[in-house]
Amino acid sequence: MAPRKKAPQEIKTNKAPDAYIAGAGTVVDQPITETLRTNYMPYAMSVIVSRAIPEIDGFKPSHRKLLYTMYNMGLLSGGTIKSANIVGRTMQLNPHGDSAIYETMVRLSEGNEALLHPYVQSKGSFGKAYSRDMAYAASRYTEAKLAPIAAELFCDIDKETVEFVDNYDSTMKEPTLFPVTFPSVLVNANMGIAVGMASQICPFNLREVCDTTIAYIRDNDINVADTLLAPDFPIGGQLVYKRDEMEEIYRTGRGSFKVRGVYTYDKSENCIDITEIPPTTTTEQIIEKVIELVKLKKLTEINDIRDETDLKGLKITIDLKRGVDPDKLMKKLYKMTPLEDSFGCNFNILIEGNPQVLGVKEIISEWVAFRNACVKNRVYYNLTKAKEKLHLLKGLAKILLDIDKAIKIVRETEEEKEVVPNLMIGFGIDETQAEYVAEIKLRHLNRQYILKRLEDVENLEKQVQELEDTLNSKRKLLNIIIKELEEVSKKYGKERRTKIIQPDDNDGIIEEVVDNSPVTLFFSRDGYFKKITPQSLRMSGEQKLKEGDEMSIVAESTNAEELLFFTNRCQVYKARTRDFADGKASQLGDYIPSKLGFDEAELPVYMAHISDYKGFMIFVFDNGRVSKVPMESYYTKTNRKKLINAYCEKYVLHTAFYIKEECDILLTSTNGRMLLVNTAALSAKAAKNNGGIAVMTQKRGQRIFLAEIYEEGKLDKPHRYRTRNLPAAGSFKQQSVESEQLTF
Questions:
Q1: Which domains are delineated in the chain?
Q2: I need a surface site. Which of 8, 141, 414, 562 has the fewest CB within 10 A?
Q3: Which of the residues are catalytic?
Q4: How many CB atoms lie within 10 A of CB 206?
Q5: Distance (Å, whole) CA 634 – CA 291
Q6: pTM for this structure?
Q7: How buried is 582 (Cβ within 10 angstroms: 0-12 exposed, 13-18 middle, 19+ buried)?
C-alpha cells in the first residue's frame, strides 16, 4: 500500500499558521542519482576541501585553526600553558570536539616525534608516533606553546597578506591560509583520506627544500633530484635509494620507495639493538611479527626479543643464539618483517579549492606563486601605510612653516568643530591632514620637532619610491622570497636524519633455512587443520573435534611441504606447513577459511600436501566424469596465495585426489555397480578447469556414490571390474564364491 500523503495543514507545529512550509510531510519519489547529487556530493566535497586534503601552505583546516588560536593567545613567547586551555579556546574556530582538537595538537607536538619540525613545544607525555601502545596523557595534564619555527607561519599575517573569513558562527575571523615563509607542505609529512581520494606526502629535509626552491626560482629548468636528495623522516631509518624511482615520484607525485630500520650489534651481549624503524610501522608490530615467525620456526636464530624504549629513545633488543651471524639475520628480518617497508607517495594537494596530484617541481611552482602573492600583498600594505603617513607629514610641514598662523587660527575659532575646517582653508590641506595637525600636543611645537618631521618626509618619500619599485618588479619580489628562504634554512635547518643507502645486489636473495622436521597433518571435514610433532603425538590422546565433525585426512608430512586447499568455489588457496604453529590433540586447530581469508560462504573440500609439483590432481564428478590435471599447472613463479578456476565448475564435484604416480581408482555408483580404472587411461590436460572425460556411465537419477584410491585385496577378483573401453557401466559386486558355481 502506498503511504498516505499528508496535507500541509495536517502537520502539527508550534508555529503560527502562516509559517507552514509548502509540501512539508509529503513523500516524493526521487531517483537515486538525484539523491547522490544533492545529498552525498556536497558531503564528499566538504570532506575533500574542508577536512582531509592539505592546501599549499601545508596545513589542513584543523591544523590551521589550532595554530592560529595559539598565535592569538600569545603563545609564541612566554611559558607553556595547559593543553586543555588551548583546546577550549580552539573550539571557537573548530566545533568538532575537544578530543579531535587535542589529537591534532599531539601530532603537531615535538613530544610525539611525528614531524621533522614540530610546530608545538610540549611538556608532558604526548605519546610516540612509532609506538601503538605508548598513549598520550589527557589534555589536563600536559602543557604546550608554539615552537620558534611557528613564527614563520604567521610572518606579517596582520598585514593583509592572506584572506580572512568568518568562523562557523561569524563571531571571529580566521585565515584561509598561512603566509608561511618556506614550503612547509614538503617539510612535514601529511596524510589524509577523503571521499574517493587520499593524500600521502612524505617529509623532506628543510635545508634541501629551501635550496631546491631557491634553485627553482633562479632557473625553472632544474632537475629537482640534484638538490632534493630524498625524503627525510623524523625517526630516521635508511632509505634504499634508486635514482630512477625517486625521479619518477618527483615527476608524477606518485610512487613508493623502501625504508628500513637501523641496527647495531653488541658483541659482548650477543644482541642486536634496533634504534630506528620505518615510519609506516610501530615497535609493537615488529615485535609481534618476530614472535610469530619464531613460533612458526621460520626464525630459529633468536632467543628473545623485547622493547627497551626509554627516555633516551627507541630501542628494540634481540638476543641471539650462539654462532648466529647478525647481518644475515637482519637481512631475513628486513624481508620477513616490517623492519623494511614501502612508503607510498600520493602528493594530492588543494590548489584554489581543487584537489590535484602534483610533482615536486609543480608543488614548488605553486608555492612560489602563493608566496609571491603574500609578499606582494605585504609590500602593498606597507606602501599604503607609508603613503598615508607621508600624506599626513606633508600637511604638517605646511603648518610648521607658519606655526604662529596656525595658533592664531585655533585661538580665534569660537567652536571646536570649526578648528579643522579653518585649518583646511588657512593652509590648503585636506581634512585628514587637518585632523592630524589639530591633535599635535603643544609641547611638540618646537624647532627640533619641526626639523625631525621634515627629515621623516624625505625618508618616507624614498621608502615609498622603493616600495613602488619592488611592487612593480617581479625579480625584486622573488629576491625577497629567496632572502627569507636563506634565513629560514640558516636558522632552522638540520642535518638529515634518514640515511641514503644504495640497494645491494643480493638484497632480495636470502638463504632461508628450511625446517624439514617431521609432522603429522590432520584435516577435518569442516575445515579445521592442525599439525602435530611426533613427540606431542606420542603423548596425546584422542583428537579433539567439533560436534558432528570428523577427520577426513591424516597424513605424515614435514614442515617443508606446501599445502593446497581446494574449495567449493573452484578455487585453491596455497600455504606452507611451516606457516602454521605446532598444535596439540586437545586443540581444534586453525579454521582454514579464516586463516587463509576465504570468500564468504566458501568452504574447503580437499587438502593436498606436496613436496614438489609432480603428480596429478584427480577430480571425480557426480555424473561419472573424471578430470586429470598435472600438479605443475598449480605452480606459480610468484608467491601467489590464491588461484581461481582450480577445477571444472560445470559439473558437481564429488571427490578430489592428489596422486604422486599412476594408480587405480575405484568408482561406485548409487545403482550398486563398481568400476576399477587406472589413471594412466585418463588423458591429462594442462587446463585446470577442463571437464575431463566420461568414465562411468550413469542413468537418470544415478550418480557416483563413492570414489577412492584402490588398495590391493579390497576386491576378490578385481579384473571383473575393469574394462577396455570408457565410458563403462561397471559391474555389480560379487556376493560370494558359491553363488558363482554352476548347478546341474
A1: 59-179 (3.90.199.10), 262-338 (3.30.1360.40), 514-597 (no CATH), 612-744 (2.120.10.90)
A2: 414
A3: 141
A4: 24
A5: 31
A6: 0.70
A7: middle
